[in-house]
Specification:
Bound molecules: adenosine-5'-triphosphate
Largest sheet: 5 strands, parallel
Structural class: alpha/beta
Order of helices and strands: EEHEHEHEHHEE
Oligomer: single chain
Strand order of the largest sheet: 3-4-2-5-6
Strand content: 15-25%
Helix content: 25-40%
Length: 152
């Protein structure tokens, strides 16, 4: 699967914990273009706005899974005439759980993870309606063959 990435894009990586967002970001984007979505939201919003003003490609690794959280980025991308691309990691709950079991650090409880998986399923239905034109869902079957085509 080829995913076109216009040079001036805001890419939202969304998916439950353990779905492979950071792994994907590391494999396909420069570290300086990737911002963790888990930091203080006000600071992140400022940083993203600053980068979009300059037309710098920006990838957010782990946008919170609510439509509310995404709304801000839809507005921001419109304001700056930037392409908004959502990449949704549609990784089964059992696989996320299994991966998180073998990771160090803190991870959501099984119950919280289930909630994240449900939120992702809702997001998959709603992303286009929210005004995100470029929506791509990746599964464990497709993720390894994906390529991002950087376009001027
Ligand atoms: P979090 O939101 O908790 O930070 P994440 O969605 O960013 O999670 P990763 O940190 O990318 O998930 O991956 C979680 C674990 O799953 C890691 O140990 C990683 O090595 C493994 N993993 C991720 N993607 C793949 C893949 N495509 N194939 C095999 N293992 C993977």
């Amino acid at each position: 699967m080829k995913i076109p990435i216009p040079e001036q894009s805001l890419v939202l990586l969304i998916g439950p914990s353990g779905s492979g967002k950071s792994t994907l970001a590391n494999a396909h984007f420069l570290p300086e273009d990737v911002l963790p979505g888990t930091v203080d939201e006000a600071k992140l919003h400022d940083e993203v706005a600053r980068r979009l003003k300059q037309g710098t490609l920006t990838v957010i690794d782990g946008v919170p899974l609510s439509a509310e959280s995404r709304r801000h980025y839809v507005t921001l991308a419109r304001e700056h005439h930037i392409a908004l691309v959502a990449v949704a990691m549609d990784t089964p709950e059992a696989l996320c759980l299994e991966r998180n079991r073998t990771r160090t650090g803190s991870h959501p409880s099984p119950r919280a993870l289930r909630n994240q998986v449900l939120q992702l399923q809702n997001a998959l239905k709603g992303l286009a309606k929210e005004g995100i034109r470029h929506v791509h869902a990746l599964t464990p079957e497709t993720v390894d063959a994906v390529s991002f085509e950087h376009r001027p």
